[in-house]
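SEQUENCE AND FOLD
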Amino acid sequence: RQQRTRLQNEVRTMEQEHARLMQGLSADQREAAQEQIRTMDQNRERIHTRLQEMDQELAGEGPNGKRVAEQARAIEREMKQWQKANRKMATEMGARP
């Protein structure tokens, strides 16, 4: 449960970082990065889906620790991919992430 809380906080921070980046982009920059933004949104949705799956596992009777740990690792991988894409887009657009 502590790991879930930690991941949830990291996702919140990740989304705030993305929101700041998006606010700093002009309409032309957003249009140019449309495909990257779509890919990042899909990645974010996968993260949220995995968090929901983790919640379901933790809410059940006798949650499977191994399954929860696997879900946490998968979320962390997705978050790293998202962060890498966010930084790349910021660099390409000359914006701060």
Remarks:
- The chain has a mean pLDDT of 88.
- The longest helix spans residues 65-93.
- The radius of gyration is 15 Å.
- The helical segments are 2-24, 27-32, 34-59, 65-93.
